[in-house]
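Milestone 3.1: sequence recovery, worked example.
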């Protein structure tokens, strides 16, 4: 069955009758879950199964499960994980130990997700924060040196894939310098292009082969002073696909965030016109979901090829003693 070029949210813990009718008609490529959609493991497993049954295919189901401040599955049913900065600190003491802990932590996260039917994690970040930036990234980042960030992000991606979960590289081409939270307003970065290529953009280059990526709602005025990366043809073509060389499926960040302007339909159209393969809409508002669906085409051409290539990388994951791995991991990060 052909899917449309958007990822949707849902309003609550179950699929409502109106949402079910919408899903069957609109056929979104995938679903993203938030805390409003989560109560306990059985409920999440039932929801993911129901979503796929409603669409009639093994659609991808995404979540933001980073650890630290951004963790949709949490206590008491799931363990709390440390933020990215914890792996940065371990890496500074011993790079091999820091990478091993990052990989193992991600493998454990993947085990949690796979157990309830979630097969895509919006992780790792390759954002490189600076001291004067808004704290929206902050301790979510793996450090302030591009190559260290890339190394730890790569280890996280390896851990997720070892657990049968696809990673999503974010926020292309970098949210670390933003002096505003793009959930609330549009950040503008005035740093020159040479510096950006040596720092922010450089952290993403070693990760260009990851199967999925997410854009940043950030304006880089030295390259395109008028549009954020999500809706900028220049940023997508010259920087994300060009300088960084990312060739995976590119999704927008959430088009309902306040960084973007215009109607939800206009934002969605602008993201697709800029070169995003898929539009991400998260808030579960059915009217907005319908608006997104009304302007997003069926997945076709190179976007469909990238989507199929990404989904072909899903796996059952490696054999894994979760209890023993968790004991080792807790000792590593203590």
């Amino acid at each position: 069955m052909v899917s449309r070029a958007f990822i949707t949210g849902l309003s609550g813990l179950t699929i409502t009758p109106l949402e079910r009718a919408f899903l069957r008609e609109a056929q979104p490529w995938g679903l993203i879950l938030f805390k409003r959609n989560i109560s306990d493991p059985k409920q999440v497993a039932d929801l993911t199964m129901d979503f796929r049954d409603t669409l009639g295919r093994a659609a991808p189901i995404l979540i933001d499960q980073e650890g630290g401040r951004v963790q949709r599955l949490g206590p008491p049913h799931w363990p709390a994980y440390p933020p990215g900065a914890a792996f940065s600190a371990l890496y500074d003491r011993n790079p091999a130990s820091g990478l091993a802990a990052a990989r193992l932590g991600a493998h454990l996260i993947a085990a949690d997700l796979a157990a309830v039917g979630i097969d895509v994690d919006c992780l790792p970040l390759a954002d490189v924060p600076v001291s004067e930036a808004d704290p929206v990234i902050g301790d979510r980042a793996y450090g302030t040196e591009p190559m260290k960030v890339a190394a730890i992000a790569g280890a996280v991606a390896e851990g997720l894939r070892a657990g049968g979960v696809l990673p999503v590289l974010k926020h292309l081409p970098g949210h670390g310098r933003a002096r505003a939270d793009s959930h609330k307003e549009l950040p503008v970065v005035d740093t020159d292009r040479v510096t950006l290529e040596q720092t922010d953009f450089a952290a993403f280059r070693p990760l260009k082969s990851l199967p999925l990526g997410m854009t940043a709602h950030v304006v880089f005025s030295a390259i395109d002073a008028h549009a954020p990366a999500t809706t900028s043809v220049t940023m997508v073509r010259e920087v994300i696909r060009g300088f960084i060389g990312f060739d995976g499926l590119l999704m927008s960040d959430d088009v309902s965030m306040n960084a973007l302007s215009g109607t939800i339909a206009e934002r969605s159209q602008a993201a697709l016109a800029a070169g995003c393969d898929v539009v991400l809409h998260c808030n579960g508002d059915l009217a907005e979901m319908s608006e997104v669906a009304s302007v997003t085409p069926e997945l076709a051409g190179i976007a469909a090829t990238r989507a199929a290539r990404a989904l072909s990388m899903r796996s059952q994951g490696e054999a894994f003693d979760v209890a023993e791995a968790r004991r080792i991991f807790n000792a590593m990060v203590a």
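The domain at 4-333 is CATH 3.20.20.300 (TIM Barrel). The CA atoms of residues 1 and 57 lie 7 Å apart.
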